[in-house]
Structure formats: structure tokens, C-alpha cells
Amino acid sequence: MLSVGGSPVWRTVTGGSREYVDLIAEQIGEIRTGTPVRAVRRYAAGAEVTAADGTTESYDSVVVAVHPDQALRLLADPADREREVLGAFRHSRNTTLLHTGTRLLPRARGARASWNYLMPSCTAGADRVRVSYGMNRLQPLDATETFVVTLGGEERVDPARVPARMLYEHPVCTPESVAAQRRLHELAGDVCVFAGAPATAGGSTRTAAARESRPAALGARR
Question: Which end of the chain is more exposed for a tag (fewer CB within 10 A), N or C?
Fold first, then answer.
């Protein structure tokens, strides 16, 4: 992605990510949507999961597949090691626009890419950098209109050309988060394990909806 010439092969799932979500859902016996989990309390032989409505159910084990800060808030009794490791991750919040403007893309069409990076000057700080994704090329979209997703940049985009506005949270790579990522395996036990993008070598992006998206723990019913 950082090479000067050529471009990486970007593969997409026909029909969107909902397709593989549906395939996974078919393998799970029971799925509950719209059921916010507020707390996970673990014991030697199992765990209790408490929903937002106050109901509590028992499970043999749980998989906490949310972002580290969300996982830490879910745990009713986090251990010192869990506080140390999960608490080391930080996220930055970025207003993100889906728009049909081209002001944030290179003027020369031949220079436009899947990822487009704009700095107002060579001395501009990181908060002034604007990254725009060319969605027609990334997806790819069979559309005559140009669709762009830009992190920030509201001051440069015509509001009339913005069909959607989101709030994304991106992981901040720090020495502390990199070290914590290597220690995530230390938190796994017989009753509770942690999963998700931070547990892999790559980073992750989430929307504000993901932060409010009812973090859930999945487990085998006792």
C-alpha cells in the first residue's frame, strides 16, 4: 500500500460483509440482537452475563469479542493484569464523511488512487492530514458518480454532497499498545477468552455505533 508504483489487489465480498455474517449466524444456535450486555462476572466454573434490562444468565464460558476498552468496562471484576493490558489501548475519534465531491482528490484523474492523502503544507501537523478513500475503485462500485469516504475534512466538503456522516474510532499505535497486543494471550482462561482485531497483527476501525453497539459475550449455555 505504501509503494510508489502499482497498487495492491483489493478483494471484496460480493454482497458486502453481511454475506459472511449471515454464514456465521447459520452456525450459531441462538443469536440475540438488541440485547446490550452490561456486565460479565466470572467464577471458577462459569460466568454470569447481565443484560441492560437487569436479567442475568449463566454460561459455561464466554468469548469477549469487542475492543479492549469495551471489554474492560464489561468485566465486573477485572484482574490487575486485565486492567494493565486492556487499559493500554487508545482510540482516536474521527468524523468521517461519505460524499460525492472531488476537492479532496488529486486534480489529475490518473493520480487518484484507492487511498488519497492530502497535507495542506509540508509543516502541517497530523491533525491537518486528510485521508480520502476512492470507493468506486475500492468496492468497486458500478456508478457514474464519484463516491469518496474522507476522515475529517468537513470544511472542504460541500454539505449538499454528503449523504452520510459517521464517527469512526481508530486505534492509536503506541509502544504501550503494541506491547499490550503481544500480551493478550496471557488473559485467556478456561472460562473467559478475548477475541477481535486487537488480538491479531492488524489494527481495527470501529464506528461510534460500534462503541454503543451493545458489546456482547457469546458462550455455551449451561
Answer: N
